[in-house]
Amino acid sequence: MDNVVILAGGQGKRMKADIPKPMFKVLGEPMLEWVIKACKGADLTELCIVKGYKFEYIDEYLKGSFETVLQEERLGTGHAVMQAIPFLKKNINDNTLVLCGDAPFIDSETIKNALKLHKREDNSVTVITSIVDDPTGYGRVVRSENGIASIVEEKDATEEQKKITEINSGAYWFKTADLVSALDEIKPNNAQGEYYLTDSVFIALNKGKRANAYISENPNVVLGANDRKGLLLLNNIARMAIIEKHMENGIEFNCTDGITIGRDVKIGLGTEILQGTIIKGNTVIGENCVIGPNCLIENCEIGDNVTLNYVQAYESKIEEGAKIGPFVHIRPNSVIGKNVKIGDFVEVKNSNIGENTSIAHLTYVGDSDVGSRVNFGCGCVTVNYDGVNKNRCKIGDNCFIGCNTNLIAPVKLGEGVYTAAGSTITKDVPDYALAIERGELKFREGYSKRKLKDKLK
Ligand code: UD1
Ligand code: CA
Hints:
Blueprint: E1 3-8, E2 25-26, E3 29-30, H1 31-41, E4 46-51, H2 55-62, E5 67-70, H3 77-82, H4 85-90, E6 95-100, H5 108-120, E7 125-131, E8 140-144, E9 147-152, H6 159-162, E10 166-175, H7 176-183, H8 200-206, E11 211-215, H9 228-248, E12 260-261, E13 266-267, E14 272-273, E15 278-280, E16 284-285, E17 290-291, E18 296-298, E19 301-302, E20 307-308, E21 311-314, E22 317-318, E23 323-324, E24 328-330, E25 335-336, E26 341-342, E27 346-349, E28 352-353, E29 358-359, E30 363-366, E31 368-370, E32 375-376, E33 381-383, E34 393-395, E35 400-401, E36 406-408, E37 411-413, E38 418-419, E39 424-425, E40 434-435, H10 447-452
Bound molecules: uridine-diphosphate-N-acetylglucosamine (UD1) and calcium ion (CA).
Residues 7-10, 21, 50, 52, 71, 74-77, 79-80, 100-102, 138-139, 151, 153, 167-170, 196-198, 224 line the site of uridine-diphosphate-N-acetylglucosamine.
């Protein structure tokens, strides 16, 4: 079984926030999560996360889903991996991938291809490298005739070595047994007085073993962020990469301003995404939809030919042909049926709305089961909360809910029920009845003339 050790002990000093650097988010997910997902995508499941600075944030995030070890003092990348020795010894026979928890763009393909090279060449260590225009700050990869000779950190490099543009991404495959024995020999004999994991390269070579580099085809594998500007750059890179992938799949964008799409979102052919739209989580969108402008969609399942305009929708299902917006809030656990129309200033929560129903304006439907072909007039409210309990309303097919109707839950309207405008419905209504609840209309003749006297023109 192959192991993974993810180094996540570091602090993000220049971020000016007191959380571990790998917990800073790119497209709404901690960088550590990106790295974990890359491992999962490469079918690697034996993960150990080395935590250090403010480790409680990491514990809280992982909720015990992976093994962690604590590095009490930050004495370098080699020292960090040393903390994982007991973990490594559990699966000593195969290989170990070491990754940085703050380099979110390492990808599953790179991981798998590097492992192939590592195995094919029977390397003791295979360093994942990248060739960059500006290598400043990174460890330089010194090549040998048939592999690599060493990795030299910026602070230890000669002027000649500083010119090398092949850099260490901070990700490596090791033979696990060789890694464990190399960790024994790493000493902090360098400009920074740190235990460098990179010393494992010449330690392996000194023992007559092979070390080589896998040059990643993804130039972003090395990218990390040291400050907020750097983090914004990572967000922009990730954001545009996802949008480009959707364009390749036939999704239309006439302008990408303000559009952010989570990387697990799926979008069907011919759908158009308009400005200011944020789509998150495991949202799936069908074909030929128009989503936007200015929608926020999280974990929703959306059918074909749906229009969403200025809609916020969470954890809900919106079926084929629904037209929703502008200014609509679909709260969790709702199912909006086929060809439903929902118009401005409507909120739907934890409700099922049947096919072809129309809720056109200024209405709240909460904790309700609404049939098909129901028409809500303007300003209707399902009064679902009595101050203690939430109760449900049931509305049968073909009902016509007059403007400003209050339905006091729990209450049930049968099929084809009409409610008169302004009625407050407190009792179940039988099929095909008109429910009307109104005081007698009275007039006081001449009232305003008396009140306003000479002000009337
Ligand atoms: C390291 C590499 C360098 C490479 C670069 C890529 C070494 C000696 N150098 O540089 O060759 O080009 O990564 O980004 O390894 N960490 C801990 N505990 C520590 C130190 C670091 O957990 O004591 C973690 C950090 O949180 C981070 C990762 O290890 O996730 C890399 O640490 P960082 O300080 O960025 O490494 P560099 O020295 O910059
Ligand atoms: Ca670094």
